[in-house]
Design brief:
Elements (H helix, E strand, L loop, with lengths): L1 E4 L2 H20 L8 E13 L6 E13 L7 H10 L14 H30 L3 E11 L4 E7 L12 E7 L2 E9 L1
Antiparallel strand pairs: 1-3, 2-3, 4-7, 5-6
Length: 184
């Protein structure tokens, strides 16, 4: 939220009221206390430098909240509720997986990668006339998290407009393996 006003107390009061209203409203939608975090709180003076001596015109406060939404079905409703309660900026939307889910999917991807690498090694060995011995080395490479295949963010509603429609899209977990064999 960004608030501009004539005094420090005015902008702080308005920002704090908005943040409290938003936090309360989105908690009612199932967002937990641990999933709402103030990530920045910046208060600055607005000055006019057009004359010889700078004139203070007011103050601006910027407060950034990070909200983790665990239920994709509620993303749109949470954004709409936040903006209805005074949030005037939304940015940095991204999708992640919790650690347990990511580890499970990486394990599945690793197994598939190893199976495919073994099949390919056998095929190459057959085609080249060599015999494979035991695997002597395995190296793995993986991405650091889900890679979005697409994520579409449509614009926020204007007063009286259509509700927000955020599409989480699909993500891909990727693991690569290299198997080194003894050959005979």
């Amino acid at each position: 939220i960004t608030v501009t006003g004539t005094s420090v107390s005015q902008v702080q009061s308005q920002a704090n009221s908005t943040i409290n209203a938003v936090s309360s409203a989105i908690k009612k939608l199932g967002v937990g206390d641990k999933d709402i975090q103030t990530t920045s709180y910046n208060l600055r003076v607005l000055q006019d430098y057009s004359s010889q001596k700078p004139i203070i015109n007011g103050y601006t406060i910027d407060v950034n909240l990070s909200v983790k939404v665990r239920d994709f079905k509620k993303i749109n409703e949470i954004i709409d509720t936040a903006t209805a309660n005074g949030i005037n900026q939304v940015s940095g939307l991204y999708f992640t997986l919790d650690d347990a889910t990511r580890e499970k999917l990486e394990s599945q991807a690793r197994k598939i990668a190893i199976d495919k690498a073994k099949q390919k090694a056998v095929q190459i060995a057959d085609e080249s006339g060599i015999s494979l011995g035991r695997i002597i080395n395995v190296t793995e490479g993986s991405n650091s998290g889900p890679r979005p295949i697409y994520a579409l963010e449509k614009s926020l509603p204007v007063a009286g407009g259509a509700p927000t429609q955020i599409e989480p899209g699909q993500s891909e977990i990727s693991v690569s393996v290299t198997l080194s064999y003894e050959t005979r």
